[in-house]
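2.7 Reproducibility. Because tokenized structures are sensitive to small changes in the input, we list the exact sequence used for Carboxysome Shell Carbonic Anhydrase, including any N-terminal residues retained from the expression construct. No trimming or masking was applied before prediction.
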Amino acid sequence: MTLPEVAAVGMHDQSIDERIEWLFALAQRHSAQFVSPEAYLARERYLANHPTAIMVLKCMDGRINIPVATNTPPGIIQPFRNLGGMFNLGWPYLGEVLADHVQEKVAVGRRVLVLITYHFSRGSESRGCAGFGFDTDAAMAHTLEIKRQVEATFGSDHGTVYPIVCGFETDDDALVLHGSNGATLNVAELGESERGTLLQRLEALFPEMPGQMRCDLLPLIEGNMDRIAEVRTAGRTLDIEHREWMICVGRGFDFLHMPNLALIIGPYSPDLADPIRKAAGIIESNMRAGRIPDDGFLLLASAPYRDIGVDRARAQLKSRFLSQFAAEVIREEFPELAGKMRVRTAVLNWPSRTLERLEDADAD
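Resulting structure tokens (single pass, no recycling of outputs):
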């Protein structure tokens, strides 16, 4: 297990106050590690060797942890999260954020690789994607539609932006790459003797992909092979069950890259109430099944900012709006659960990844 996962062992059984205290301490440790000279130099070295920018569209399920699953340094892969990995590039805010991100990378000469993910469990359908009602075929069909939207937006020749549909099997943390020719590469089925053939396999899967981009995709596959071996050696009976005890709304939750703690909802959909309702339903189900204590759950809102002054002030307003909006949805739809809700509001300093807690929004 990674260090964050080790730190989370036993956390589900502690009181809600202890869990919240642990959460903010975790955020502080993440920031301290992110700004350390070693981590900074590791990112710079990685980007010098692998200049392709990587972004991933994924479910809010905390088990979908692509940086850990690929042994990639923190800060390299840019995540976008929403319930079930449900996105639509026609959503005004999402389209703007993605377009700005791509333009920023292209302006300095970098190509962009977009991983569009769905997830499933090989061991049990009930450990699949709750957002799609555990229907893997429906989740996969949705990712294919997102891929078509990415191509319609950024071009279908894939010279600069290359979208890949990618399955994520949560029992082993295994990637399943869907090639442009209909073939797939299930990393869980690869043996050590096949490492030397990976680049050729990627070329067969994505023949029109620029060579540098294939070379930059290769370490993700190699890292995933290492991660799968680690998971299989360590075992993870409890890690593969839904045990989330917090709902996070907004952006800036990279420090929560670990399984089964949080349901993370990006502020992208015009109908933000829908994923909030579904996340609250999962929390309520976890309490009723005894997977988490029923003494409380956390609603955490966050918005990132890059600059002090106006940018930070806008982030504060956004975060407060998100926490108030989400809390009101939960109070209206889940009045009994709302009585156990603890609300926290924060902003995230993006350059340092520092989570800055604002005043509490509840009176606990």
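Confidence is low (pLDDT under 50) at residues 1-7.
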